[in-house]
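Intended use. Records like the one below are meant for learning the mapping from a protein sequence to its folded structure. Do not use them to infer anything beyond what is encoded.
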Amino acid sequence: MLAGRFPLSLDEIDRVALFLNVPASELIRHSEDPWELSPTEMRMVRALRMLPTSVRDHLVMLADYLIGVTPAEVDLLTQIRQLTEDEKDGMQNYLRAMKLTAEGRRQR
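Structure written out for the chain above:
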């Protein structure tokens, strides 16, 4: 097989790829296509496909959000997670008030 005298079956290509920890397409591709999925990405796609549609949609929305998260937002989210439930309720009330105030200013 290594000398090219015998073709590899698709199952054999899959086993070689698994052993090398690369996508099977990486073993046979002709171009430098950057859209190949890594083994971890393939696991994520498989897991995503097993979720109910509503959960999958929320997870994708979360991923879209996380792509744009800044370091300052990460720090803020970490601080929010450390709050008690009462403190979180107070924070939500404060944010609602701030939003109403901002909307009022925009309407003037």
